[in-house]
Amino acid sequence: MTFSYMPGFGNDFETETLPGSLPQGRNSPQRPAYGLYAEQLSGSPFTAPRGTNERSWLYRIRPSVKHTGRFKPASYPLWKTAPNVGDHELALGQYRWNPVPMPKEPTDFIQGIRSMTTAGDVLGQTGMAAHVYVANTSMVDDHFFNADGELLIVPQVGALRFVTEMGVIELRPGEIAVLPRGLVFKVELVDKEVRGYVCENYGAKLTMPDRGPIGANCLANPRDFKTPCAWFEEKETPCRLIVKWCGNFHVTEIGHSPLDVVAWHGNYAPYKYDLATFSPVGAILFDHPDPSIFTVLTAPSGEEGTANIDFVIFPPRWLVAEDTFRPPWYHRNIMSEFMGLIHGQYDAKEEGFVPGGISLHNLMLAHGPDAPGFEKASRTELKPVKLEDTMAFMFETRFPQMLTRYGAELETRQDNYIDCWADLKKRFNGTPEGDWS
Ligand SMILES: [Fe+2]
């Protein structure tokens, strides 16, 4: 089966699976065609300004009130929610991990979420959590929605299928998907085992960054975002709906599939994006811009220029700058940086940061190229070089990222990460040339 998509970012989309199932000229006719129920899904307050007002109208076999019964508590102990502070003993530090191991027991996508950090406060709808997912089992009769935030999914191993109430998104490593807060979905595995990263955004929705003097093109372009066309199933068998709500999980049993939206229209919808379509902009003479130049999506915090989350990538690109230290410079940052590597090598750390790995450089903690990376970049001949086979990314937030107990105790944490800077030599000897012996 192939699934189709509509191009554009934040468009007012419309899509129907049966001819005439989408009402025209009104949202709520007295009797919608096919006996469907009309229902609004609001992603912003009704009165949000036009530029940030988001809602969709869903025409479905049953209204969502029929997709929940009485709730019972459910347990997903490795999925943590901010504030989640002080549940481990690990001291402050710069940290790096090898990939999270694949599960040995049957594990679906929701069971396979392992929280690494949380930031901000879900009750204040600020901040985020950075998770890894690992899974080897498709969700069949289980469905899920997250009231706590939207989910940005970054696959690293294996293809998956997000079967949502608004359509189906197929996703493979190199692509990302965003599932809005409240959207009901299940996850099917296309490959046997999958692994990847998730950013859970408690705050205002991710959007495209302003480009300023860059102009009307480059970076991520709106037409490369793809929203699925409507898809539904008519399945009258026992199903479950799992809900994450203010950090707790609840489950309800229903007698049918909640994926029953026959037609919909609106601008509150899931989407995917192929990172290979990102057109990087950079220095063409000397120095390099701040990494914010590689922002794909940004979630505003309410304070101008200060993101709740920036989703930034480090894609293949040409390095041409003259008389320039080309890798990322050493720095300390008020923003907190959670990095992952989808494939290849990262130019500031050629060893030790492996695909599927994670690094965490938190509020004001120093970081930068490791000693071999510094040596190489300081002595290399500065001809044009193409960085190939690389795709790292960063979830960056204005809030400190609190490490979870799972992350602190994970056996793949590299206890010697701090040593990657140990061999940086003192070059100062009082002469303008310095000591490069
Ligand atoms: Fe950094």
Protein described:
- With 437 residues, this protein is mainly β.
- It folds into two domains: 5-94 and 101-275, Jelly Rolls (Sandwich), CATH 2.60.120.10; 278-421, Jelly Rolls (Sandwich), CATH 2.60.120.
- It has two helices and 28 strands.
- It has helices at 371-379, 405-409, and strands at 5-7, 13-16, 37-42, 55-60, 72-74, 95-97, 113-121, 126-135, 142-146, 150-157, 160-164, 167-171, 175-179, 185-189, 194-201, 225-228, 239-245, 248-254, 261-266, 271-274, 295-300, 307-314, 317-319, 336-344, 358-361, 385-387, 390-397, 402-403.
- The chain has a nine-stranded antiparallel β-sheet with strand order 1-16-20-13-10-15-8-7-28.
- The chain is globular, with a radius of gyration of 23 Å.
- Bound molecules: fe (ii) ion.
- Fe (ii) ion (FE2) binds at residues 331, 333, 337, 361, 367.
- Fe (ii) ion binds at residues 331, 333, 337, 361, 367.
How would you sum up this structure in a few lines?
The chain is mainly beta and 437 residues long. 3% of the residues lie in helices and 36% in strands.
